[in-house]
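Response to reviewer comment R2.3. The reviewers asked that we include at least one raw input/output pair. We reproduce the pair for Secretion system C-terminal sorting domain-containing protein here without editing.
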Amino acid sequence: MYPVPLTRSGKTVMFFFCYVLFSIQFVKAQCIASGPNSPGAAVSDATGDYSFTNPSNCFSSDNSRATAQSLLFSGETDTLKATDFGFSIPTAATICGIEVNIEKSSSIFILNTAYVTDNSVRIIKNGKITGSDLEKTNVVWPTGDANTTYGYNGELWGTSWTPSDINSANFGIAISAKIVGDIGLFPAARIDYISMTVYYLAPSLLSAQSIQFTVANATSNSAQLSWNWNGDEAASFTVERSANGTKWEPVNGSLQKNNLTSAYTFNDVNPLTGRSFYRLKTLSASGEVRYSTVQPFELTAIPVLKCYPNPVTSLVTVYGVTAGEQITVTNLFGQQVYQSPPALNNTVSINFNELQPGIYVISAGNRKMKVQKK
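Raw output as returned:
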């Protein structure tokens, strides 16, 4: 057989295939794994021939097993339903896939005579068994505990998902087994541990036009967010805050806009103690929701501005400056009359000789104080 040269259309098809494959893999690579989490509830329903005793033994890998013991030659177990996995997927995230790991075994294995296999492995959504059956009926359960994985990053189990579906206590996994026995050989299906991992795309990665913003200390007890917006004039902004980067809550505060520069500032006057996280949520006039990148923040004490002497006749020294800050001096009409170069340390000296007598405002960041020139 001789090689056949690719046609131009063939090249186009190959390029498109590679592009799609790369795009899918790139999205998967961005997905965040939450878990593995253990169940908080488990029951054996009455749908089979043999019920699981001690279903809660599937909560941890400790050799204490949920067990369905056969009494006849062959049959099916009840469905073991494990739920309440305690996920906290961000509200605006996109679910990428669900992975389930089940540590299981059979009390007896004799080839073609006495053994246990999967009967059904399906997802539980809103308290109901649904979606694709990912059972592996051609794989027998070993006599020693072994872990079997169902699903992966990209497997949605034949249904659509929202974060609230995953976070619900009624979300889980349902598994039943098929038992084959013989005279005097009655295998038991045993499950030691079930865990689940959920993969999701973080809200900050959902938009190719993520908003960039900064967050910094505004005063000794507040956080200030700053950003620019040149998009939809009808857009509304919500500042959200999180203690762990997963659970988010809206923040009440004052939002200010500079109409000349389209710059926005927002002050959170009650930031969380220690390290926290902020993000912006925008809602356009068309109803499109977008999220910014996530920015960490940790409240630090900012020194209070002081100056000496006050009143001043010529030279005044300003204390409590942070290195790199610039000091500005304005009159009572808001006109700037002086701006210092970036501070090299925590003090800045200003010469008031050329200023007229009166009251002036010295500012460093959002900190201000008044000084009198004689």
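The radius of gyration is 32 Å. Residues 325 and 365 are 7 Å apart (CA to CA). Further pairs are available on request from the corresponding author.
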